[in-house]
Amino acid sequence: GSDPSLKPIMYMGHLDVVPIERATEEQWVQPPFSGKVTDNFIYGRGTLDDKCTVIGLLEAAEILAKEDFKPKRTIYILFGQDEEIGGGQGSEIVANHFREEGLELELIWDEGTVIGKDLVPGMPNEVALIGIAEKGYVSYNLTCQMPGGHSSMPPENSAISNLNRALVAIADNPFPYEISKPVEGFIDYIGPVSPFLNKLAFSNRWLFEPLIFHSYAATGGGRALIQTSMSATIVKAGVKDNVIPSKAQAVVNCRILPGENLESTLEYLNEIINDTTIKISP
């Protein structure tokens, strides 16, 4: 930037994607990592999350460079390679470097969500959703260790059965719905331009909050806005079909709503599982 007195800004994106289940590879309409263009659609992991941002920033930078654009404020562009696993070897290193250099940013633009229809319950028009907050992220390991044995003489309870009951308890007892501060602001802005019924509900939340919750709870994306989520993502147990394993493990991934924290999330998990044979650790 031409004016060193101005704090710099940063645009961010990431190149990495989550893997696929190899067993499902034949079920994909197009090869999942091909980047194939068909009927004006790009088929490939990461096209939305988040290579579209990366490509957009590169295209914009190239156009501005050709136009001999010279910003007054310095612009940083950061592309991470490990965002999906926490950014410890990408953005965290950059953040530490900036901290050591005493460099402060005026503003950061990172990936958000998309512009599209059917993103907001009851809203027929296209909506551009701007992310101003992010849910916290933690994965808990659930471990149950009990005496194993032979399947011909099964005990009343086993590591697998107890762990299974814990996972069912998690599925049957989701976090209570809550309108967090970011969602409250979203409702304040979307309400006036919503259809009449939505407008009525949003402007009288004290009366229609149960109706709002019911509407948002109808979809996974809607529920994500109004509660801390808990999802069992990995389950491991057993080595042979006639052996009852002495150890069963599961990973439960939680996305924590603003206003909650690690302590309250762990406390809720322990409360609903209520089983001393299940050990929970981050």
Describe this protein's structure.
By secondary structure, the protein is of the alpha+beta class. Helix content is about 35%, strand content about 20%. The chain contains eight helices and 13 strands. It has a four-stranded antiparallel beta sheet. Helix 5 packs across helix 6 (about 205-215). The longest helix is centred in the N-terminal third of the chain and has 20 residues, at about 45-65.
At a glance:
The protein is an alpha+beta fold. The chain has helices spanning 47-66, 91-101, 159-172, 181-190, 196-203, 205-216, 220-226, 262-273, and strands at 9-14, 36-38, 41-43, 75-80, 107-109, 115-116, 127-128, 136-145, 149-150, 229-237, 243-244, 247-256, 278-281.
Number of helical elements = 8
Question: How would a textbook summarize the main sheet?
Answer: 4 strands, antiparallel
- Radius of gyration, whole Å: 24 Å
Ranges where pLDDT stays below 50 over 5 or more residues in a row are none
Give the distance, in angstroms, between the N- and C-terminal Cα atoms. Answer: 43 Å
Shape: globular
Strand order of the largest sheet: 10-12-8-13
Query: Considering DSSP H and I runs of 4 or more, what fraction of the residues is helical?
Result: 25-40%
Order of helices and strands: EEEHEHEEEEEHHHHHEEEHE
Structural class: alpha+beta
Q: Tell how many strands the DSSP assignment holds.
A: 13
Q: Strand percentage, roughly?
A: 15-25%
The whole-number mean of residue pLDDT values reads: 92
